[in-house]
Amino acid sequence: MTQRAELLQGTLDLLILKTLALGALHGWGISKRLQQLSNEVLEVGQGSLYPALYRLEDKGWIAADWRLTPTGRRAKFYTLSAAGRKQLATERSQWRLFSLAVEQVLTA
Amino acid sequence: MRFWRRRLHALRHGAEIDRDLDEEMRLHIELATEALQQSGALTRDEARRRALVAFGGVERYKEEHRDARRTRWIEELRQDARYATRSLIRSPAFSLSAVLVLALGIGAGTTIFGAVHAVLLTRLPYPHDERLVAISLEDSPTNRWHLSTVDFRAIEAQQHSLSSVGAMEVRHATVAVPGTDPSLEQLGFVTSGVFRALEVRPIHGRVIEAADEVVGAPRVAVVGERWALRTFGGAAGGSTQVIGQTIMIDATPHTVVGVLPTGQSQLANLHGDIWPVLQLRSPDRRGPFVLIGVGRLREDVTLDAAARDLAAISERIYPQWASSFQDRAARVAPIPLREVMLGDASRTLGLLAAAVALVLLVAVANVASLMLVRAIGRWREIVVRTMLGGTRARIARMLVTESVILAGAGAAAGLAVAALGLKALVALGPYLPRLADARLDGAMAAFAVGTALLVGGIVGASPVALLLRRDASAMGGHGSRLTGAGRRARTLRGAFVATQFALTLPLLAAAGLMLNSFVRLLRVEPGFDPRHLLVVHVALPSARYANDSAVAAYWARALPRVRQTSGVLSAGLNEVVPPREPDIDLNNFDLLDRPVPPGGAQPVSPWVASTADYFTTLGVPLVDGRLFTPADSAAAPPVVVVSHAWAMRYYPDGRAVGRRFIEGGCITCPPVTVVGVVGDVKVQGLNEAGDVIYAPVTQGWPRWLNVFVRTAGAPTEVMGRVEAALRSVDAGVPLDNAGPMEDRAYASVVQPRHWTTLLGGFAVVALGLAAVGIFGMLSYTVSTRRREIGVRMALGARGQSVVGMLVWDGMGYALAGVAVGLGVALSGTRWLADTLFSVRATDPPTLAAVTLILMAAALGACWLAARRAAAIDPVTALRLD
């Protein structure tokens, strides 16, 4: 079994924005891609995705609309908005700074 | 914006969002199940189970999703409101009485707020009104008088602190437009500087300009829009047509050059329709002092700096005019225009606001104790709710919501009360400038709603504090309400009752003092018998009656005709109308046998022109010396008759006749001799001293005089004939203010009457509330102690003693309240001292009387409530529960 890591508080938003940067996805798609991109390391409580998605939509960083999946099922697809793209850039640089600092402390 | 739009959307479409979320989650689990099924070759059921586990609790995330929408509190609020409304409707007696009491309290509060808002908080209708000043002369902060032409010219030429300055003279003048009867109006004659200082712009034409002020220039006037429309027709353009029209003012033609917008026609506190130009002649002496200065401070100048600048001007002009004016201490001083316009209004409103605040607090205490009883009645319901998992916060919110809804209904009804209250205040209350402009508006509504929220919070907090104690749930099983929380509730209710009494007593005391003062005022002798006495004001236009001989000629013809009118017993002339003349002339004088040192302030006294038969007509006795005779002509040495009060003030030995004085600081004029002393007639108000100096009209005819007529029958029957007699002499003379003297005597005490009525009304409301409060408390006590009372009666206690016990129980709280209230009243009523006449603010008999009234009301209410206990049948009482 691969080792799993709990998500740090507040990083879920960043990860959702990142997965959506590659294109529109529905909820299950986001959770699948998160697992793939993290090589199955990151454990995302799949249900917790939905309140997070509502919050992001509330802030205007993502937009949602109902579309059909390739298999012909109705699903709510989320896309990154321009504001979301900007937010992703900010959060990404903040995260880098943060992780770098933590890394430095740990290796010191 | 976006935040609230989303909240609103989430609130409106909550169900839709929930459906969408369901669908999203279902799809998620379906897709996850399929993926697991394919990868691990699981059965569909097993795959679905694992998908659900991985998802981690559908319902939990749905809740989280709803929280994320942040609408939960709104939904719960809606729930609370619905529930509270239902439960209030279920007990209509409670709800109605609470709403009624709150409506009275909030309504009264909102009325006074409306008045404060209109009178004190609204700005004057001029740009940057904080820089506007009125300019007058003063030799102490309390002794102020108007400017003279000398002062005004000097200010114009020498001041450095005002961006513009003008002068206004307010006086009565006859006004006639073609085709109408002349009328006597109070007009403000103004210089161009007044318009520049106030920055008033006309809606048509122009305002008065500097060129118009030159003596001899064509006379012009500006008029108010409302007057223009009224006089020249309401049709469109009516107010433009007025430009170029001629108005006869004191029989002098004035051309209308401009129209002022409605609302700005009140120049510096004078309500007027017509503003003629003021053309000032070059002065030959320092007086007379009739001009009101109006100026606008420069932006970089403070009021203090302006005061120093203007005071320096007074110093410079003093030596030049010392021969006609000896008050060296007199200074030209700027006073903020707002202060001048509002006068005593802030004190008046302060008194009203204090009275109303007391009423509102009594109402709050009253409703709070009602809420408390209600909450105790719902004890079991609340305990059940706690047991079923209702959090303390949630139950507290439920209780507060209920009281806020009550208070909200109270505020709505209170606004209706306030709408009526404002009308009543305008009609019945003490005079306040600009009060007539007060309207029920957004600010008042906001005040009512704010008060309602506050009151709701306070009222709701008391049961919350009581019921949500730690031991609340432990009380659940017991039927008894008298242990623990029940006892606390009684103490709290007792405190509310005591509070109501403590607040009511100062109100009663204030009302009692006003009543006492008012009764004393009515007992003051005005010095004449107003029955069968008629007065008519006659104003001779200055254009046709330019000098003393013209005026004397008019009266030489008019007075005999009045005397010959049937029903007239006698007639005389006087400049003022007793018992209270608002525009009375005060004159300074210097007694020859007791001169005031140069530069000192000379005594002043009302100075009134009159005829000898004025005294005989009014029935004023001659105490000493003689009245005027025809020999006291303009050529003869000047003489006066003084009132008894004047004589006693300056010559307590009673030998005033023959004394002489210098009048008005005119040291070149011949001294005036006192030839007689007459009985006191009040002319400055019943509450003022009776000093008056009467000068004979024959030594200086005023153009405005009042004819006093003693009639055989009712004065109203003779009035028409007297007016006709006067018109037969000159139909162009406006007659004004004709009426029986009894009306004047009544009118002179209108203000104290208003105060007494108003405070009395508040006191009665508070007294009623306090009595109802203590009645309610005791009734409740009786109903909760039925068992105990039953036991007492079964053991042989008589009904009488049970009632007595309960009454003393209630009276304890009332007495505690009264004791505190007396303390408050003793320190608070000195606010009234200035309003009271010949009653001290701590008058012991009055305070004792109101205390007795309050205690009697408490005793009565207690007895009514306790009486029911005597009727309790021990058998039934013991079987209950």
Short key terms for the protein model shown above:
heterodimer, A: Arc Repressor Mutant, subunit A, 3-stranded antiparallel beta sheet, two-stranded parallel ribbon, 4 helices, B: alpha+beta, 11-stranded mixed beta sheet, 53% helix, 16% strand
What does the model show?
The complex is a heterodimer of chains A (108) and B (881). With 108 residues, chain A is an alpha+beta fold. Chain A has four helices and five strands; from the N terminus they run βαβαβαββα. Chain A starts with a strand and ends with a helix. Chain B has 881 residues and is α+β, with helices and mostly antiparallel strands. In chain B, the strands form four sheets. In chain B, strands 1, 2, 3, 4, 5, 6, 7, 8, 11, 12 and 13 form an eleven-stranded mixed β-sheet that branches. In chain B, strands 16-17-22-19-21-20 form a six-stranded mixed barrel. In chain B, strands 15-23-14-24 form a four-stranded antiparallel β-sheet. In chain B, helix 7 (149-158) crosses helix 11 (303-317) and helix 18 packs across helix 21. The two termini of chain B are 58 Å apart. The interface between A and B is medium-sized, with 19 and 24 residues.
> Strand tally of chain B, please?
24
- N- to C-terminal distance of chain B: 58 Å
Assigned CATH architecture of chain A? Orthogonal Bundle
Q: Count of DSSP helices of chain B?
A: 27
The CATH top-level class label of chain A: Mainly Alpha
Helical amount among residues of chain A, as a percent range? 40-55%
Structural Rg of chain B:
38 Å
Shape of chain B: globular
Average of per-residue pLDDT values of chain B? 83
Backbone shape of chain A: globular
CATH topology of chain A: Arc Repressor Mutant, subunit A
Instruction: Report the major sheet of chain A.
Output: 3 strands, antiparallel
Oligomer: heterodimer
Largest interface: A-B, 19 and 24 residues
Strand content of chain A: 15-25%
Indicate the structural class of chain B.
alpha+beta
CATH superfamily of chain A: Winged helix-like DNA-binding domain superfamily/Winged helix DNA-binding domain
Class by alpha and beta content of chain A? alpha+beta
Measured as a percent range, the helix fraction of chain B is 40-55%
Low-confidence stretches of chain B: 472-483
Count of alpha and pi helical runs of chain A: 4
